[in-house]
């Protein structure tokens, strides 16, 4: 080992066959995998490009002098992007394909609904836990944010009708997760009303405080207006001037005026 870095453990096989650097400026030799591999999407750094920017020693210059040995055959098997050929043709292959078709979960919801429900379910407990949490109104399992998502993705009557129709055709049918979720929670009595009341229980305290604070502000404003001598004097001035300006019209001799005038 050099520079305190441990070399590869023994028994990992021979190093990969590599060629010498083919381009000027490249410090690493060109590697040719035995099969087409899955790409590793990184942003490449070339030491040659860094020479003009800094003369200091970097991690990449240090690592450039080390070589890692590993089992190439095993690595290629694990990370190749080439698909394996499926064995078994004729009757056996067809039988295997038929069995695979039987295991496919049934979908009856449209793509948009199915996708929305699937995304929501990632943030929820399992379907059974969600069912019992709604029954018990369990705030530990379903917080306000999760409850809001459930309300936004409630099953519609026509969607439930599609699920039931498919179930009549095949009582043993296995549905996809969104369909199973809709089928399960739809068994809860008065589901939509239960969820709305539960949602209200989360917000009622905040709502009462919100409106109470504004009522207090309004009450103080009314008290200030009623007790303000300056405001009364200003209104009196406007009334006197207005009557003078309207002296030769039907608008004159007024005892008062609508407060909307003050905003003009």
Summarize the entry for a quick read:
The chain is mainly alpha-helical and 264 residues long. Helix content is 52%, strand content 0%.
What are the defining features of this structure?
single chain, 264 residues, mainly alpha, 0% strand
Can you tell me the overall shape? elongated
Could you tell me the mean pLDDT? 78
Radius of gyration: 38 Å
* Uncertain segments: 1-6, 8-19
Helicity range of the residues?
Answer: 40-55%
DSSP strand tally: 0
The number of helical runs is: 11
Question: What is the N-to-C order of secondary-structure elements (H for helix, E for strand)?
Answer: HHHHHHHHHHH
Could you tell me the strand content as a percent range?
Answer: under 5%
Distance between the termini: 87 Å
- The assigned structural class equals mainly alpha
How many strands, what sense, and barrel or not for the largest sheet? none
């Amino acid at each position: 080992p050099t520079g305190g870095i441990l070399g590869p453990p023994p028994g990992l096989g021979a190093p990969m066959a590599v060629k010498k650097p083919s381009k000027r400026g490249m410090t690493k030799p060109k590697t040719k995998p035995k099969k087409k591999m899955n790409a590793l999407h990184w942003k490449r750094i070339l030491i040659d490009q860094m020479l003009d920017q800094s003369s200091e020693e970097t991690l990449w210059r240090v690592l450039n002098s080390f070589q890692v040995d590993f089992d190439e055959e095993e690595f290629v098997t694990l990370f190749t992007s080439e698909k394996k050929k499926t064995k078994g043709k004729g009757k056996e292959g067809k039988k295997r394909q038929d069995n695979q078709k039987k295991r496919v979960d049934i979908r009856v919801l449209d793509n948009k609904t199915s996708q929305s429900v699937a995304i929501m379910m990632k943030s929820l407990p399992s379907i059974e836990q969600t069912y019992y949490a709604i029954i018990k109104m369990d705030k530990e399992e379903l917080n306000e944010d999760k409850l809001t998502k459930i309300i936004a993705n409630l099953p519609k009557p026509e969607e439930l009708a599609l699920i039931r129709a498919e179930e009549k055709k095949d009582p043993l049918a296995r549905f996809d997760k969104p369909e199973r979720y809709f089928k399960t929670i739809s068994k809860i009595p008065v589901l939509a009303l239960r969820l709305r009341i539960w949602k209200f229980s989360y917000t009622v305290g905040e709502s009462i405080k919100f409106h109470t604070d504004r009522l207090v502000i309004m009450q103080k404003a009314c008290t200030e207006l009623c007790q303000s001598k300056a405001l009364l004097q200003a209104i009196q001035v406007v009334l006197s001037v207005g009557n003078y300006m309207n002296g030769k019209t039907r608008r004159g001799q007024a005892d008062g005026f609508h407060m909307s005038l003050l905003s003009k």
